[in-house]
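Structure tokens please, single chain.
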Amino acid sequence: MHAPVSFSIEVPDLSGVSRVSDLQLFELLEAYAATGRLVDAGKLTLAAEVARRSDRTLGYDGLAQRTGDRTPEALVSRLTGASGSDARQLVTVGVLVDAPDPWLTDVATAARTGDLSVGAASGIATGLGRPSAAVSADDLLDAAKLLVAEAGTLPPEKMLRRARELRDDLDSDGVGEREDALRDKRLLRFTRQSDGTTRMFAILDPESAALVVDAVDCVTAPRRGGPRFVDTEELARSEALMKDPRSTEQIALDALVDMIRIAAAADPGRVFGVRKPSVRVSVDARDLATGTGIAHLEGQPSAISVQTAERIVCTTGYLTVVHHPDGKLDVGRAQRLFTPRQRIALAIIWGGCAVENCDRPPSWTEAHHITPWSHHGATDISNGILLCRHHHLLVHNNGWHITRDNRERGNDWWMLPPPGDTAARPIRLLAKGSIPRASVPPGSIARELAAKR
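Here you go.
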């Protein structure tokens, strides 16, 4: 048998740490962090070698298969005690360091020498992505150099966000495509556990995450150091929540279950109350008007397309924020949102999603401007239609548009596919409510409801 491998790393002495100065404490912590990065650099090299010896082409002769582990990540996890996700990151970055793509050579070098953490290297590689028709390898190489230089000032999760920001700046036209890719990853899965509980696993695209996280955060905010309330009722609610024996995670789950219970119990013909712009979108007014450029959801690292921003604005209204040269911000009033009374009228007219074969009730739909607001379409009953989220996405993000054909299609409303798309077929829109759409004079219900307000 060969002698066991041994090595040693010199680390600072921590005896008497309670007596050191603040500056010495910082220096010790930084020294240990630097040592940890060196150890991680070694683990990257070893993980890459495990991956090489476990290559799929080797089949059952691969190292991981021979040791009874299904994958090299599982083998690394077992030997190091790392979690599954950490082991996957070690293998992924290890392979990157072992044979880096040309635009990631600086990232690989910094990770190999311990100057860049495993998490930061992973964030840079993931955030920058690969070259495309709009972004060359040289562009990504320059971006990677900049990110490596910034790595000492940002934690790994912010490196990922920063890398995505640089990619979006380099390829604003590709934001929509990357957004679609993230949306395609969304899923919700339930697994029954042996003890009778059910594990819920979900992957949320940025837009869904912004909505769900904001809704749950509103419930748990006092527990997480949220805003102090002056209002008597809110203060009482906050104090009650602080005394609640449940953990913050249990409160969050119970709140989500309650939201689902309320939605499930709603009358299918009922339209939910006032929709507040809980999902905040930052977008340049000029980009919103021209339909080009990018936008950002508050709290989400990935950029979204202006088309998605337009759809959110169509659904929830928006707040005008004017940026002044001196740094001041003016926040205006909410605009262009269909009022609750108008949504009730739209529910009566359309009876749910307007797509002929869609069964989504009014409470599951979003009010859409037939003639877009950006094209001077009015927030009026005669210009409103109800669409479920899927069909609303088709209009705003996939290039479909709504029209009324008075000649060939019997005076009906249709959703037409993008020009040049020969595979898609027009979708008929149908007013399923108690008031036929054709019998509503333009603006009549809007004027009647306005008179009652």
